[in-house]
UniProtKB/TrEMBL annotation:
Residues 6-236 form the ABC transporter domain. It comes from Paenibacillus rhizovicinus. One of its GO terms (molecular function) is ATP binding. It is found in: Cell membrane. InterPro entries: AAA+_ATPase, ABC_transporter-like_ATP-bd, ABC_transporter-like_CS, ABC_transporter_ATP-binding, P-loop_NTPase. This is ATP-binding cassette domain-containing protein. The keyword Transcription does not apply.
């Protein structure tokens, strides 16, 4: 049975004159991974801060695990883990010592602290280095320990603010596996990211935030399918992409689009066909055609639709 873990309605937040969240409506089902995707400064951290009770909204409502984030703040706090919340991972202690200390501070008995520590070291693949000082850890190991520490107390909802920023590809993939494992154990995970691939591969549902609003939401497949079947890319002499046009993938539409483009672009323009990616969705939703590198001086005609137009 699907249960709602996080819900917001008309959520608003401004800092001074700047409106950061301009009426956010979201629903996240229990036991799923939800990715909030958006460019720098879009309001992702502000939304996580509101949902985790660190910041008060100016208007609208939000609930986590059935509790209102303003009126039932303590209940919300007891329902969530937030990575980085306990940024106090001590560099001069080992991972095992850090975890045991956090367990004891959270009220575990010594025996329970030992077994929870062992469980978390295993889950986050830190057993081999559990006895080494944290100051000797790589960025990826450190991030895994941060996550392990934030999960000392078992809570149903986990907030991850850009969990893999700055990690190399191997560490990023290792962390993704762990996030998926947490979801499979029944946790609800709300993460923010600027990495399209991360949202694409991890999330059950994605919402794209831009200009203080949710401009699109759905599964990765649903978002990509807004473009239809195939994209036509126009390339210049140096292989640079001049423009991207959406088609429904049918021979008829592709032929009509090419015929119309042939009248507008120089004869040595090259073309290629490809499937839509999350990058296309993101660029189309978060940039205007004047700033996109995929613009051209051609005008849209009856069967041509640049990706920025196709997805709106
Ligand atoms: N406490 C604050 N006081 C004033 N302005 C703030 C405050 N917190 C955030 N802002 C502003 O609100 C906007 C959104 O910030 P936020 O950190 O939520 O964005 P973000 O999507 O998380 O960005 P990034 O991906 O860069 O972390 C930014 O313009 C930021 O400068």
């Amino acid at each position: 049975m699907n249960r709602t873990a996080i819900a917001t309605k008309g959520l608003r937040k401004s800092f001074g004159q700047q409106t950061v969240l301009d009426g956010i409506d979201l629903t996240v089902q229990s036991g799923t991974i939800f990715a909030l995707l958006g460019p720098n400064g879009a309001g992702k951290t502000t939304l996580i801060n509101i949902l985790s009770t660190l910041t008060k909204p100016d208007g609208g409502t939000a609930s986590v695990n059935g509790h209102d984030v303003v009126r039932e703040r303590e209940d919300v706090k007891r329902s969530i883990s937030l990575t980085g919340q306990f940024a106090a991972v001590d560099d001069m202690l080992t991972a095992r010592e850090n975890l045991r200390m956090m367990c004891r501070l959270s009220g575990f008995t010594p025996a329970d602290a030992r077994s929870r520590t062992a469980e978390l070291l295993k889950l986050f693949d830190l057993e081999a280095s559990a006895g080494k000082l944290v100051k000797t850890y790589s960025g990826g190991m450190r991030r895994r320990l941060d996550l392990a520490v934030s999960l000392v107390a078992s809570r149903p909802v986990l907030f991850l603010d850009e969990p893999t920023t700055g990690l190399d590809t191997v560490s990023r993939r290792a962390l993704w596996d762990m996030i998926l494992e947490l979801r499979d154990r029944g946790m609800t995970i709300f993460l923010t990211t600027q990495y399209l691939e991360e949202a694409d591969l991890l999330a059950d549902r994605i919402a794209v935030i831009a200009g203080g609003r949710i401009v699109a939401s759905g599964t990765a497949q649903e978002l990509k399918s807004r473009f239809g079947g195939e994209l036509i890319e126009l390339h210049g002499a140096d292989e640079e992409i001049l423009a991207v046009y959406a088609t429904d993938g049918s021979l008829q539409h592709i032929r009509n689009t090419l015929n119309e483009l042939a009248e507008q672009v120089s004869p040595d323009t090259r073309i290629s066909l490809r499937k839509p990616s999350m990058d296309d969705v993101f660029v189309a939703l978060t940039t205007t055609s004047t700033t996109s590198s995929s613009t051209t001086s051609t005008t849209s005609t009856s069967s041509t639709a640049k990706v920025e137009e196709a997805v709106q």
